[in-house]
């Protein structure tokens, strides 16, 4: 029996020190002259780093661009070591986004904000949503609204999810048009009327089950909503500010909306 | 820890040489040994050259290039077309373009690219001087020759926006199939970029 247990433990340890997974490249740093330290947001292993030999070579440079969807095999002698990674490209989202400043800002913002996730902690739900958003970065009629949903998902995964299902004051789920900046809960039009100047706008497309066309004003309100909670709940306790690249993304979305109007 | 095999001055020399690109501790030791053997004809002239470089090297006030005079020899060259400014990230990129002799314009070195993760913003780059040059009336075209990376292209879009009020023509270098490149061996991103930037012939 002991031998069986030992074999099981041995196999388990071996599996910890080698895995194969898919992920999204979120950062790459040069290491020495030819290698790079790649940081992935992987499906089953969360945010994970690894040394990529030849990561600065001509072959791997196009692969190790942030936002790219890759297959990775990570190996290390001990579980808590940096370890080595072998990377292969699945889909090059970076190249798709490069020609459009808005898409590129969204991709950079998304990868920068993913650094908020704790290391080696899997978030498969956020991973799926991230991959979905990256797949639509070449369609500027879709990705701004998807970015709002992605930021809501990020807040949710970090434990600061907003409750947009029912009014915080009355419990009803009709006519929800505000969000309380303190509790992060939806507020109905009638209950929120006396405090309308202090409440955040809730765009209709964020209410569960509501299928409505998304306007540029909805996107602006959605980004203001997520931006407020990112700043107050995530960045302020770390004595930091929302990254400039997110401000740039918001600015580009607003500028595009103005041009279209 | 390995035991020192020479005096502290030589060990220090080896340690500093090993920091150079292309040299590890072993090759730095070889280089140091070679310098020590050829004291008169290599070590002393090299020391003099390094000392002179330390004293005289400066950044060009016009373009940000590294030279021993400011403005640099490229900016002083009267045969160059000063109406065309090629914007590059680093001095190494300028040298690469000069090696290729692809353009006879003048340059502008940004000194890096925008990088939100490393906290490099527009204020950390040589962008204000570029805007000044573009607004001077002498410049007709700005060519953004920045790297085809996410950071390089983000910097390019940012500069393009900042240059819009100056009314100079702004262009970017193309991305696609390299000379001698075979499609079968290219990555998906490069192929997609090449197809996107196709032109009618």
Automatic annotation (TrEMBL), chain A:
Protein keywords: DNA damage, DNA recombination, DNA repair
DNA replication/recombination mediator RecO N-terminal domain location: 17-87
Matching Gene3D superfamilies: Nucleic acid-binding proteins, Recombination protein O, C-terminal domain
InterPro entries: ARFGAP/RecO, DNA_rep/recomb_RecO_N, NA-bd_OB-fold, RecO, RecO_C
Biological-process GO terms, alphabetical: DNA recombination; double-strand break repair
GO CC aspect terms: bacterial nucleoid
UniProt superkingdom: Bacteria
Role of this protein: Involved in DNA repair and RecF pathway recombination.
Family according to the record: Belongs to the RecO family.
NCBIfam families: reco
Protein name: DNA repair protein RecO
Annotated source species: Candidatus Filomicrobium marinum
Gene that specifies this protein: recO
UniProtKB/TrEMBL annotation, chain B:
GO process terms (BP): DNA recombination; DNA repair
Coiled-coil ranges per UniProt: none
Limits of the Toprim domain: 83-178
C4-type Zn finger ranges: 60-75
Protein keywords: DNA damage, DNA recombination, DNA repair, Metal-binding, Zinc, Zinc-finger
Keyword Nucleotide-binding: no
The keyword Transferase is assigned to this record: no
GO molecular function, one term: zinc ion binding
SUPFAM superfamilies (alphabetical): Recombination protein RecR (SSF111304)
Function: May play a role in DNA repair. It seems to be involved in an RecBC-independent recombinational process of DNA repair. It may act with RecF and RecO.
Protein family: Belongs to the RecR family.
Name of protein: Recombination protein RecR
Gene name tied to this protein: recR
